[in-house]
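2024-03-11 09:14:02 INFO worker-7 job=invfold-0412 stage=load source=structure_tokens
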């Protein structure tokens, strides 16, 4: 699953997505996923690390997307978001 497709799919479920570079190096860039009124993310997934994500109290559709994206090889995820 490409990163751009993942972000679009998550947004269609009603979540907000932010890219986080804070307190991380290039390899640890992550996508933070929030519900509309949350201050803290409900889930996050690393952009440059396969099989790595965290979720708390999310629905099954978002969980499935996280598993699909986290299982995708880094080379198949598409454009490097850190340079865009």
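2024-03-11 09:14:09 INFO worker-7 stage=emit residues=84
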């Amino acid at each position: 699953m490409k990163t751009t497709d993942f972000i679009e799919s998550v947004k269609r479920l009603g979540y907000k997505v932010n890219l986080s570079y804070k307190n991380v190096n290039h390899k640890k860039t992550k996508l933070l996923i929030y519900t509309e009124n949350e201050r803290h993310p409900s889930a996050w997934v690393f952009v440059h690390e396969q099989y790595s994500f965290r979720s708390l109290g999310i629905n099954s559709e978002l969980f499935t997307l996280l598993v699909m994206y986290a299982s995708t090889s880094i080379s198949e995820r598409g454009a490097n978001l850190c340079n865009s």
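2024-03-11 09:14:09 INFO worker-7 stage=report msg="The CA atoms of residues 28 and 51 lie 13 Å apart."
2024-03-11 09:14:10 INFO worker-7 job finished
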